[in-house]
Design a protein that fits this description.
4 helices, 135 residues, Four Helix Bundle (Hemerythrin (Met), subunit A), binds fe (ii) ion
């Protein structure tokens, strides 16, 4: 079950960033489908781990450009990444400790966060990248 289908409206007009977002969406879809198929905790835990690792990597990839760009939104953008990472890491720790379950609400929270962040914050980043000649 793909709960999140990539569409052109999510493009930030920077190829590598779009590709990373597509990969994130793919992992989120894997998590959703593992959950809906009733896969065991080990599978869900491994997929969640994948998501955490890839999200960290992706945030670092975006942030490494911040200093080079004339990018007034850098602090706010970094803060959004940091907050989400903290929330996800907290959830991961709780999940691994067996204190919470993977739920549709968690998946939808991640989906909504991604849509909002890509559509608003990352689009502004994409514009700054384009201005610097990166597409
Ligand atoms: Fe992003
Ligand atoms: Fe971002």
């Amino acid at each position: 079950m793909a709960i999140f289908i990539w569409q052109d409206k999510y493009s930030v007009r920077v190829k590598e960033t779009d590709e990373q977002h597509q990969k994130l969406i793919e992992i989120l879809n894997e998590l959703a489908s593992a959950m809906s198929r009733g896969k065991g905790r080990e599978v869900l835990q491994a997929t969640l781990e994948n998501m955490v690792i890839y999200t960290k990597q992706h945030f670092n990839e975006e942030e490494k450009y911040f200093d080079d760009l004339d990018y007034p939104e850098a602090d706010q953008h970094r803060l959004e990444h940091k907050k989400l990472m903290e929330q996800v890491l907290t959830f991961q720790a709780e999940y691994e400790a067996g204190r919470v379950n993977m739920t549709v609400e968690i998946i939808l929270f991640l989906k909504d966060w991604l849509i909002k962040h890509i559509s608003e914050t990352d689009k502004v980043f994409g514009q700054a990248m384009n201005k610097a000649g990166k597409f």
